Structure formats: C-alpha cells, structure tokens
C-alpha cells in the first residue's frame, strides 16, 4: 500500500498535518501557561478582597482561601501602598519571578517550553495587573508542579486531537486521490497494457476521456504516440513483406544475370569494333546487377556487408555512369557534363559510389525528360582538407513539395508515376556507411543541386 501513489500521499499528508500541529501546539501551550497563571492571580485577588472586606478572618479560613487559589501568599498594591494581604509558609526559596504585564510572545513561548522540560518543582513569584482595575499590582507565590502537570495534560489533549484530525484528513484525501487521480491513472495503465498486447490493432488506441487537464494531456500524448507506432508497425510489416518479395525476385534475377554474364564473355571476343567498344560496358553493367542482387539477398538475411573502402578514380567512375545514361537518352537533347580533375581519387566503395551517383543522375534525367525539354546535368567534384565534395546539378523542373518533405524516406520521396522513392533513401544509406552524407542544396524552377561529402578521416575522435 505504501509503495502506491495514494499510500505515500496518505503518509505525507499525516506527517505534514502533524508538523503544522506542532507549530500550533507550541504557542497554544504557552498561552495555556499564561492563562493558568492569570487564573491564579484572579483567584488570589478574589481571596484578598474577602480579607479586605473583613479584617478579622480566622487562620483556618485564610489557609483555605490560599489553598483554593493554589498560592502561598498574595501581595496587593493599592494607592501606592504594597500590602501583604494573605500569607502562608513558603516551603523554600523563590526560584524565579514571572511578570505577566510586559512579557512578549517569544518570551512566553520560551518560558513555557523551559517549564515543560524542567520536571523539578520550583516556587515562583508571579506579578500581574489586577482585574477590573482593583489595584496597581498583584503578585502571588506558587509552585510549578501543578502548573506543569496541567500543561502536560493540555498538550496531550491537543496532540491527540491533532492526530485524529490528521488521520481523518489523510483518509479523506486518500479516498479523493483514489477516485479522482489514481483510478484514472490505472485506467491509462490498463489501456497501455492492452495496447502492448496487440499494438497493430487500431481499436486498442486510447481515447482521451479524463476530466483532469494534466491527465487528459497525458492521454492525448499517449494517443498520438500509439497512433504513430501503429502506423510504423504496419509500415514495417509491409516493408518486411516487400523485402521478402524482393529477395525472391533478386534470387531468380541473379541466376538469369549469371547466365547472361557467361554470354558476354563470348561477345568480348567479337572482332566487330563497335561490339568490342560496347562489350566492356555491358559486362560491367551485368556484373553490377549481379552484385546488387547478391547484396539484396544478403540484406534480406540482415547480413548486408559494409563498404569495402579503396582508392577510386572518380572521373572514370562518373564517366562510366554518364555513358550508361547516354544509352538511355537516344536522340533526346540532354547534355551530360563532368567537371572532375583527372587525378582526383576518393576513398570509397566503388560499387556503392556508382549506385549513389547513378541514382542521382538517373533521377535528374527522368525529371528533365518528363517535361520534354532540353537540359543539362553536370557532375563536379573537388576536395577540401577535411572531405571530398561531389556536386550534381541539373536544369530540371525542381522537386515537388512532397518530395522535399520526405526526400530521404523510403517509399515517401517519389512523385513520379511508377517511382518507388527508394533511390535517394538507398543513396543516403550507402553514404552513411562511408561516414558521409548527402544534402539538397536548392531546388526550384531553375534546377536542382545535391551535394555529397565523403570525409577523409577514419571517424576516430
């Protein structure tokens, strides 16, 4: 019980109420002590007035008056004359004097606490002002033991009453917390547990219903989280199914391409100069296709190898990409340009880098051909002390807003009919394996520019 929110609140409420009662207890006991001594002064004054009315009182009556007033003697000052009105033997010397006429509250509290912790019976002189202006001053001599016993009795009654009030308040607060806070929280926890059992089931998403503002905000945040998670799980399931299908296709396609690779070995031996010039490109393309199928199969087994970094002659790799794209152009008026220093070499996986640049050039070509206008695609590269930079610019129509918002997300960034939106997502993934990145510099009616950066360091800090 005490590990629960309501149980701890019950304990804290009781403790805090008791602490508050302690602050009430101290001045209350001090006030009780002051009233006790004032009461003894009043009784003594009444007894002295009896003597003033009749000077001839029997010693037995005088002793009874003093016992009723619980004092040893009474001194009354009237008309500037100090007069011992009633007197009886004092058992011992007077230990201290208490003047109730001008003591401050702090002094009264200090003396009251001191009296509580002093069990020794003392004789004190108490001075005060007579009631109803019956004189200038009245003082009595009294014992402290009866007063201390009365103070302890009064303090115990206050503490018991405080404990009852604390317990009653804590129980009421405990019940209120269970009804208005703990029960709704348990409801939210129950929703979370039911949702965790089947997160793909949209019917288990929580519907905010709490009346408490903070709790309702928590429910709304949980609803948004569950909705997003359910969508992500559905997307993940579709991706898994798609991955399985792609793996199957890649398996069969790899077998077909392997057979085609055997035929290209014969084509390379042809004496036709055109065939001899085109055969290496065909062989290279088929080899890359076979490698891509093998990588896809490895990815389907969650065993995709990392990049194999070597020194790559960038100008030759880009020229090969552009030559492959020229075959797809036919007679279309599109200029493919390369502005890369012939001696520039970068450290990268050649197959990965070919796929990255090939995806970017292919996307640009398809965008320009889709608007049926002439254009230009240019690949430029340079190096800085920290990285190799590759820029790809085109004069195409620019990217649509949807494509910009989901540029590097699989199945989200394509707006072309028949497009999958995988090209840029794959490129970004491959570049991350190199420690590099790709960013969109700008895109508009005047064209689009992407910038690739490949770091020269090894990633060590």
TrEMBL record:
It catalyses: ATP + protein L-histidine = ADP + protein N-phospho-L-histidine. One of its GO terms (molecular function) is phosphorelay sensor kinase activity. It comes from the Bacteria. Residues 215-242 form a coiled coil. Pfam families: HATPase_c, HisKA. Its EC number is 2.7.13.3. SUPFAM superfamilies: ATPase domain of HSP90 chaperone/DNA topoisomerase II/histidine kinase, Homodimeric domain of signal transducing histidine kinase. This is histidine kinase. It comes from Sulfitobacter undariae. The lineage of its organism: Bacteria, Pseudomonadati, Pseudomonadota, Alphaproteobacteria, Rhodobacterales.
């Amino acid at each position: 019980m005490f590990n629960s929110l309501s149980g701890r609140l019950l304990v804290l409420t009781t403790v805090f109420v008791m602490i508050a009662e302690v602050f009430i207890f101290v001045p209350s006991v001090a006030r009780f002590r002051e009233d006790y001594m004032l009461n003894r002064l009043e009784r003594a004054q009444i007894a002295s007035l009896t003597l003033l009315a009749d000077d001839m009182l029997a010693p037995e009556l005088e002793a009874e008056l003093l016992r009723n007033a619980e004092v040893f003697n009474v001194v009354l000052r009237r008309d500037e004359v100090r007069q011992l009105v009633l007197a009886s033997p004092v058992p011992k010397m007077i230990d201290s004097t208490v003047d109730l006429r001008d003591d401050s509250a702090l002094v009264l509290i200090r003396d009251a606490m001191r009296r509580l912790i002093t069990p020794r019976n003392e004789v004190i002189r108490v001075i005060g002002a007579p009631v109803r202006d019956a004189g200038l001053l009245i003082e009595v001599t009294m014992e402290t033991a009866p007063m201390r016993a009365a103070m302890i009795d009064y303090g115990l009654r206050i503490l018991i009453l405080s404990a009852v009030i604390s317990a009653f308040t804590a129980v009421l607060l405990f019940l209120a917390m269970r009804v208005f806070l703990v029960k709704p929280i348990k409801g939210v926890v129950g929703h979370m547990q039911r949702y965790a059992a089947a997160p793909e089931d949209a019917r288990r998403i929580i519907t905010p219903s709490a009346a408490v503002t903070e709790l309702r905000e928590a429910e709304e945040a949980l609803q948004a989280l569950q909705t997003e998670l359910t969508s992500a799980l559905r997307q993940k399931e579709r991706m898994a199914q798609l991955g399985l299908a792609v793996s199957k296709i890649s398996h069969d396609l790899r077998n077909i391409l392997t057979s085609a690779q055997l035929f290209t070995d014969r084509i390379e031996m042809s004496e036709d100069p055109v065939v001899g010039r085109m055969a290496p490109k065909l062989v290279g393309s088929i080899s890359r296709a076979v490698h891509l199928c093998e990588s896809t199969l490895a990815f389907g087994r969650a065993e995709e190898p990392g990049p194999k970094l070597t020194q790559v002659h960038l100008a030759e790799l880009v020229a090969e990409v552009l030559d492959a794209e020229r075959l797809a152009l036919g007679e279309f008026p599109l200029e493919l340009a390369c502005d890369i220093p012939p001696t520039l070499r970068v450290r990268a996986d050649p197959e990965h880098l070919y796929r990255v640049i090939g995806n970017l050039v292919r996307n640009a070509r398809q965008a320009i051909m889709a608007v049926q206008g002439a254009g230009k695609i240019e690949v430029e590269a340079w190096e800085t002390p920290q990285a190799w930079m590759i820029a790809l610019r085109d004069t195409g129509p620019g990217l649509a807003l949807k494509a910009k918002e989901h540029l590097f997300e699989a199945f989200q960034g394509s707006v072309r009919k028949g497009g999958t939106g995988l090209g840029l997502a794959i490129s970004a993934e491959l570049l991350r394996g190199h420690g590099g990145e790709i960013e969109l510099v700008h895109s508009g009616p005047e064209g689009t520019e992407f910038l690739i950066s490949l770091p020269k360091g090894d990633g060590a800090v």
